[in-house]
Queue: 2 jobs
Job 1
Amino acid sequence: MQGRILVVDDEEVNRLLLREILEDEYTVEMASDGEEALYELLKHHKETAAVLLDLQMPKMDGFTVLSRIKKNGWMNHIPVLIISGEEAVDIENRCFRLGVSDFIHKPFESSIVKNRVRNTVELFACKNQLEQKVERQSEALKEQSRIIRMQAEKLKEAESFRNLMMQYRCAIMEVETKLKVLNEEFSRVYKRNPFESIKSRLKTPESLYEKLERKGYPVSLESIEELINDVAGVRVICSFPDDIYRLAKLLIRQDDIILLNEKDYIKNPKDNGYRSLHLIIKIPVFLSGGKTYRKVEVQFRTIAMDFWASLEHKLKYKRYVENAEEIVGQLKACADSIEILDYQMQEIRNKIDKSKE
């Protein structure tokens, strides 16, 4: 037996016929009117696998029963199949708007009844299992988020952590100062600025804890210092691609900066079209107790690259997206167009510069 089926019809012959068709696979209960059906559901809605409901009944018709089922929230877990001798489109549409799963038309054909009921029950069982799984995962994520917040609060309260974050903020300021000095020099010597703006950010305690957990690293200050390269981040927005390489080269040539890693996503874009130049550097921070080195991730992008990355990030974290593959393809096409535009604008600038010579 796969579950309990409730057949609701004021005609006894229909109830008995449906019971005979379905009783090999289900426990079949019967109700002769809407009030009796609702009473049965009130007692047994958790065990009910499906309801077969006639529309034309005395006392309370099928539409009223449907409204009550929907109001009680049972429609989310119990499929309703309408028993009907009519095939009027407006009636069927009204039923579907109320949440009906399918129709079984009179006179009954045994194989059709069995297949429609079986398919509907199995579909709803899969739906309910999926919803339960999603609910469990949601609860697990909530608990994980609660733990992350709790551990992050502990990190924030620790004096040693606050001191470490202060050092990373100072490292950001050091990088920003070096870039601003180069910007001043370019402005005077070349009569233009190599970058448009600088953005910076420091990872939150929650983000640090989550990343350490995800990577399987111990949650400690030592792990943050040694294993996380992007605690401190600086993003440099340039006008043209060649400014990116010129500025990055001048930055890492400075004798107090150590280049740890370089990833060029401009020459070698990611599959989704993302383009940027990433540097992981170590920079000295001078404190009252002496000099210490801290890592900073420096990203260089053109205005167009940054615009694309910002929009892609927002779209990426939408929870439900239809036609996801199509959207990914469109984003990649936009990234390719932006690359062409960047180099076209750079070529125009070069022509303008030559005409001034």
Job 2
Amino acid sequence: MKELSIRGWISLTSTASTIRAKLRDDERGLTTTEWALLVAGVAALAIVVVSVVRNLTSDVAGDIPTNVNVGTDTEDFLGNG
């Protein structure tokens, strides 16, 4: 019985070793990983650009005067006369 379990253990470890060696040399998912990193980088760059543009436009929007005379009285509009 012991001899049978030792043979099974040796067979199991050699099979696991073979599978590990095959998986170590497998590069099928490499292009997927490269594309995922590339897309993540582009998304991060887009977030930075949107943040910078938003900050710049909100700074400029704060400088726009809002006290514009919108009355229809021509005397006030033309400067009393």
